[in-house]
Write a structure and sequence with these properties.
mainly alpha; 7 helices; 74% helix
């Protein structure tokens, strides 16, 4: 009888890395100011570096690489600028950033558990074989829950729901926002997955133990921030 060696689980490493990232990010967000701006700018530079690493494998053409990088600089730069603007504005509210981060995480968690529990048809199997429509629905539920909690906090609905003028929009705003967040975050995920497939790599980098690169961790967040920037520009 042959001995089968099971692959070593990286759950412990992934968990420790995730906890470390949450502590560091949370501390920087609460602190704000120059520390926040410098930290986010460094993250942005790391994202551009990883983006370039993918582009080098996707295209050998100088013009093609230039076009890719121009798009990447606009996409990542706009998202980073939006994040800094939210926190450093005169009425900067760290809880709003926590709500955005929480919503993106909720999309991932909801999609993971709903996808595993329900399964069903894939959204785009050639790009991301693990993403299902059931997972998208789970992401929608997760994002809606976080949106509801933030709206209850931001508009004082915890103190009194009945009679509050914002209460009338609650049942419309929450599901629409939850759906928009889930779809946008998943789109960001699909975009990065598509790039990685074209580049022939599993991860965008190996900076974060057990989690791959920066781009792997914030693909959905980048799409959300870019979307917020577009909305602000149009309004």
């Amino acid at each position: 009888m042959s001995n089968i060696v099971k692959p070593k689980s990286d759950l412990k490493v992934r968990t420790l890395s995730a906890i470390t990232m949450l502590i560091v990010a949370g501390t920087v967000i609460v602190t704000g100011g120059v520390l926040f701006t410098v930290f986010v700018t460094i993250i942005g530079a790391g994202l551009i570096y990883e983006f370039w690493g993918l582009v080098r494998k996707i295209s050998n053409n100088l013009l093609g690489r230039a076009a890719w990088m121009l798009g990447g600089l606009i996409y990542i730069g706009t998202a980073i600028w939006q994040l800094i603007s939210i926190r450093t504005s005169a009425d900067g509210d760290p809880y709003f950033i926590f709500a955005v981060l929480g919503a993106v995480i909720a999309v991932d968690v909801g999609a993971y558990f709903a996808g595993r529990a329900i399964g069903g048809p894939k959204i785009a199997p050639k790009i991301s074989p693990s993403k299902t429509w059931a997972g998208l629905f789970g992401g929608f539920i997760g994002a809606s829950v976080v949106t509801a909690i933030y709206m209850l906090y931001a508009f004082g609905l915890f103190e009194g729901f009945v009679g509050n003028p914002m209460a009338s929009t609650f049942w419309t705003f929450v599901p629409l926002t939850g759906l928009a967040i889930a779809v946008t975050a998943q789109a960001g995920d699909f975009f990065e997955s598509w790039m990685k497939r074209r580049a022939g790599v599993k991860d965008s980098g190996n900076l974060i133990p057990g989690h791959g690169g920066l781009f792997d961790r914030v693909d959905g967040l980048l799409a959300i921030l870019f979307g917020l920037s577009v909305i602000n520009w149009l309004s």
